[in-house]
Amino acid sequence: MLHLEHQVQKDIGVWRMQLTKIARRSLVELRVTAFDFGSETPRVVIRDPKLLATLPPPQSCKPIGMKDLIIDANFPRTLDQRVYHLGLRSGEVANRIITVGSPPRADAIAVHLDAQPKPFRLFSERGFLTITGRFKGVPVSICSIGMGYPNMDFFVREVRECLIGEMIVIRLGSCGGLRDFPVGSVVVPRASVAVTRNFDYDFYGGGSTKSEMPYRISKPAVADVELATILYRSLDSMLAPTRVIPGVVNASADSFYSSQGRKTLFPDHNSDLINHLLSSVDDLATLEMETFHLFHLAASWSGPPKPPIKPATNGTDGAATQSPVLDTLDLSEGDRPRIRAASAQMIFASRTSQEFIVPEEVERLESLSGRAVLQALVEVDIPGDRLHPDAGSVWT
Ligand code: R1P
């Protein structure tokens, strides 16, 4: 896969001109004509806002879906370069992002955005909502992604493809509390473990061999330390007298029910799960369903891939030539844009006292926490050359 962001940043004029010319004709043609480096699935990702402007107009009111023409089965996009599930394209999502689980929470936080420019809003056919605007003049996005690891996976991977430079993500979500923190408290975990159902366990037969446990606990994935510190300070100063607790550990489960120790009509073999978690994971304090996957993907991502150095033919006489783009893409580790992640977790339910937060408190907590997260995001320093260009974006 070839990422053009480096080509554009380094302004290799000849390639850019060639691209612009071809993009005006069609992306399908571009896919097979311009960048056939001999890989099995040659692919072009257009990130230059000016080049994007030459493509079909934005469809901000119309979500993409199965009826749109998709040009790449490996990483599906529409002809106008929208990613398949979030429906976004480059310039519609900012480097600083707050992600939440529900559209009403996203809308409640969006009231804090600057009135101008009018926030961009896109609701995808798959239920992802993105609102992009400015907070205190700084571009930010609010992304509502639904629930669970798979939706977090769609969000992180598809937004990453739409962004040049740093991706700073803070999840603001609800959680269950496993310690004696009051409901309505907010936790900023330093790490998260995954709790997953062991599908090899004999759930129907009522047990398995001793070597199989019904649930698995992963090693921890950690939050970005600096981001979590900024987040904690912002929440602590803006939420008083609400208690804000830093430095604990979260567990993200693959079910709201079985792998969080809840009883349903299914034989889940989970009656001792909460005790098992508390005795296995130091400082464990909260249970929810997304933070682990966010931290894990952020830690796994190492920047745009270095493409294979393969000779490219010049298309006229078949002679092998070295691509000027490939020559510029040898990024050292320190130059690679990062994904930095942290999480703020509002305790809606106490799994020890069985207490549940009241609706009026939810409204207050979501709005105040949302504003505190936006404040934290704008306090994160991102060097100018690691910011997505303003030109052609929805926040100009
Ligand atoms: C379950 O009710 C949902 O609430 C929590 C869990 O992680 C899960 O997504 O988070 P949100 O409030 O962000 O949706």
TrEMBL record:
Coiled coil: none annotated. It comes from Jaapia argillacea MUCL 33604. One of its GO terms (biological process) is uridine catabolic process. Residues 96-299 form the Nucleoside phosphorylase domain. Gene3D superfamilies: Nucleoside phosphorylase domain (3.40.50.1580). InterPro entries: Nucleoside_phosphorylase_d (IPR000845), Nucleoside_phosphorylase_sf (IPR035994). Transmembrane segments: none annotated. GO terms for molecular function: uridine phosphorylase activity. This is Nucleoside phosphorylase domain-containing protein. GO terms for cellular component: cytosol.
